[in-house]
Write a structure and sequence with these properties.
By secondary structure, the chain is of the alpha+beta class. It is built from 15 helices and eleven strands. The chain has two domains: 225 residues, 2-Layer Sandwich (Beta-Lactamase), CATH 3.30.450.40; 152 residues, 2-Layer Sandwich (Alpha-Beta Plaits). The strands form two sheets. Strands 3-2-1-6-5-4 form a six-stranded antiparallel beta sheet. It starts with a helix and ends with a strand.
C-alpha cells in the first residue's frame, strides 16, 4: 500500500511537471521576438504555477566579444516588494498565461531596478576561476552553489549583486552549444533548491536554448533584410514600420516619443570635390557615430541620401533636445576625413525634432513636423537643432 501511494504521488508530480513544461514551451512558440522569449522563460522559472523560484536571471553568450551578457532579470528587490507582488497574483488569481501576457501590456519588468542591474553585467567568458557563469558556459553543466562554493566566487560581480546563500546555474543549449545561462535562487523564502528543482530547470533550459537560437536566427534575417547596404542602419522602409510600431506602443502606454531628423550640412560640396566614394566613407563613419552615441532603446535609421533619423521611445521634447544637441556637438568635434573641404572646415549637421503626441498622432505627421524643424535649423545658419 505504501508503495502504491508513493507511485501515485510520483505520478501526480510528473503530471504537474509535464503541464508546466507544456505551457511554457507552448508560450515560447507564439513569438520569435527575443525579449518576449526571455520573459516567457524567466516567468516560467519564477511563477507560482511554474517552477516557483523567487528570482531568475538570463545571460546570453556573446561569442564575438567572448563575454557573457546580462539580458533580463525577473524578481523582487526585497521582501516587501515580493509580498506585494505575490499578494497581487493571489488576489487576481493570475496563472502562467496571465503573467506572460502582462509583459505585452507593461514596461514594468524592463524598467525594474533588478532588471537594470542584470543588464549592466558583462562577464568574461574565459574567467572560469573567478566567475561561476563562465565555468557553467565552458563546462556546459549545471552548477548548484551553496555556502562554501559561493564563498569561492565572492569576487564575481554576479555573486556580489545577488547576495544569495544558494543558487543554481543552468546552461541553455542548442545543438550541444551553450547559448546562455539561467541563474535562479530563493533569496526571500530561503527554500532549499532540490534535485527535482534542478532537473525541472534543466528540462526547461533544453527547450529554451532552441527557442533562443531560433529567435536569434530570425532577428539576424530581419536585420539583413531591413538594413541599409552602405551604413548597416535600418533602411527607409523599416524606419516607417518602426515609427508606426513605436507610436502604437506610446499610445498604449500613454508615453512620449520623439523623432530626430538629421541632415548633413553642405554635403554636396564634399561629394562634388572628392567624389561619391569619399562621401560614402563619411556616411559610414557618421552612421557608426550615431549608433554609438544613441541609447540602447533608440532606433537609428538612414532616411535616404545624407539624411538620418533617430526614433526615441519614452522621450519628451526637452530630453530629445538634450540628446540631439549632444549628438550635434559630438559630430562637430569628430575628426572626419578631409573635413576641411566644408565651408566651416568641419562636418556639421542640422537637426529637427518632433514629439508624439503634441506634434502628430501618426507617422506622416511626425515626419512632416521634424522635417519642418530641420528646415528651420538650416535657415538659422545650419549646425543647429530646432524643435516642432
Amino acid at each position: 500500500m505504501e508503495e502504491l501511494n508513493k507511485l501515485k504521488t510520483e505520478l501526480e508530480r510528473t503530471k504537474i511537471e509535464l503541464r508546466i513544461l507544456y505551457e511554457i514551451s507552448n508560450a515560447m512558440r507564439t513569438t520569435l521576438k527575443l525579449d518576449e522569449i526571455l520573459y516567457i522563460i524567466l516567468t516560467g522559472v519564477t511563477a507560482h504555477t511554474g517552477l516557483g523560484f523567487n528570482r531568475a536571471m538570463l545571460f546570453l553568450v556573446n561569442e564575438k566579444e567572448k563575454i557573457i551578457e546580462g539580458k533580463m532579470g525577473i524578481g523582487p528587490e526585497n521582501g516587501e516588494e515580493a509580498n506585494a507582488a505575490w499578494t497581487k497574483i493571489e488576489e487576481e488569481k493570475m496563472d502562467l498565461e496571465d503573467l506572460i501576457n502582462a509583459f505585452k501590456n507593461t514596461d514594468y519588468i524592463l524598467e525594474s531596478g533588478f532588471n537594470r542591474q542584470v543588464r549592466d553585467l558583462k562577464i568574461s567568458m574565459l574567467d572560469r576561476d573567478e566567475n561561476p557563469l563562465s565555468l557553467a558556459v565552458l563546462e556546459g553543466m549545471p552548477l548548484h552553489l551553496t555556502g562554501s562554493t559561493l564563498h569561492k566566487y565572492r569576487n564575481s560581480p554576479a555573486i556580489q549583486m545577488l547576495e544569495s546563500n544558494e543558487l543554481v546555474l543552468i546552461p541553455l543549449k542548442a545543438k550541444d552549444k551553450v547559448k546562455g545561462i539561467i541563474v535562479a535562487d530563493n533569496f526571500i523564502t530561503n527554500d532549499p533548491i532540490t534535485k527535482d528543482d534542478i532537473r525541472m530547470l534543466t528540462m526547461l533550459a533544453n527547450q529554451a536554448g532552441l527557442a533562443i537560437e531560433n529567435s536569434q536566427l530570425f532577428e539576424l534575417t530581419v536585420e539583413r533584410t531591413h538594413s541599409d547596404y552602405l551604413t548597416n542602419l535600418w533602411n527607409h522602409g523599416y524606419f516607417q514600420y518602426l515609427l508606426h510600431t513605436e507610436i502604437e506602443k506610446a499610445k498604449a502606454n500613454k508615453s512620449n516619443l520623439s523623432l530626430i531628423m538629421i541632415d548633413l550640412d553642405d554635403f554636396k560640396i564634399y561629394n562634388d570635390t572628392l567624389g561619391h566614394q569619399a562621401g560614402d566613407k563619411i556616411l559610414k563613419d557618421l552612421a557608426i557615430l550615431l549608433r554609438n552615441q544613441s541609447r540602447k532603446m533608440d532606433l537609428v535609421c538612414r532616411y535616404g541620401g545624407e539624411e538620418f533619423t533617430i526614433i526615441l521611445p519614452h522621450t519628451d521634447k526637452k530630453e530629445a533636445l538634450l540628446i540631439a544637441e549632444r549628438i550635434r556637438m559630438d559630430i562637430q568635434r569628430y575628426p572626419f576625413l578631409n573635413e576641411d573641404i566644408f565651408p566651416n572646415k568641419m562636418l556639421t549637421v542640422s537637426l529637427g525634432i518632433a514629439t508624439f503626441p503634441e506634434n502628430g498622432q501618426v507617422p506622416a505627421e511626425l515626419i512632416t513636423s521634424s522635417d519642418k524643424s530641420l528646415y528651420q535649423a538650416k535657415k538659422k545658419g545650419k549646425n543647429n537643432t530646432c524643435c516642432g
